[in-house]
Amino acid sequence: MQSQFPHDPRQREGLYDPAFEHDACGVGFVVNMHGEKSHQIVWQGLEILVNLTHRGACGCDPLTGDGAGILIQMPHEFFSATMAELGMKLPAAGNYGIGNIFLPPDPKERRYCEERLEKICADEGQKFLGWRDVPV
């Protein structure tokens, strides 16, 4: 079938492959194809969330956590400086991961969970670097 448009959206191009095409109301995606970080991309991601409230993307369900939010590149410079303040040196950008963990407020239960997570990292052959309490 010939398209009447100069660019046929059904043709594979760049990261787009029509084989993966399906309805996805409730999902938004903004990306800089060159991997460049920018404040504009963050604002566009937030704009998508505003426009998806009709699908429940509002972060307002306290029981299930509807997953509303944006995913951005890891800010290596920020984490490197922050962890240095705690006496930890991070590997080069892209050579480590960071997790956001919600732990119990009880110190004994919290330490138990921390120890379990550290053991899982070791069991998986990973080097655990440390903990950081996020200021709230």
The number of domains is: 2
Number of E-state strands: 0
The averaged pLDDT comes out at 82
* Unreliable spans: none
Strand residue content: under 5%
Structural class: mainly alpha
What does this protein look like?
This protein is mainly α and 136 residues long. The protein has 2 domains: 73 residues, no CATH class; 63 residues, no CATH class. 29% of the residues lie in helices and 0% in strands. It has 3 helices and no strands.
Keywords:
136 residues; mainly alpha; 29% helix; 0% strand; extended
Indicate the topology.
Layout: H1 39-51, H2 76-85, H3 107-123
Can you summarize this structure?
With 136 residues, the chain is mainly alpha-helical.
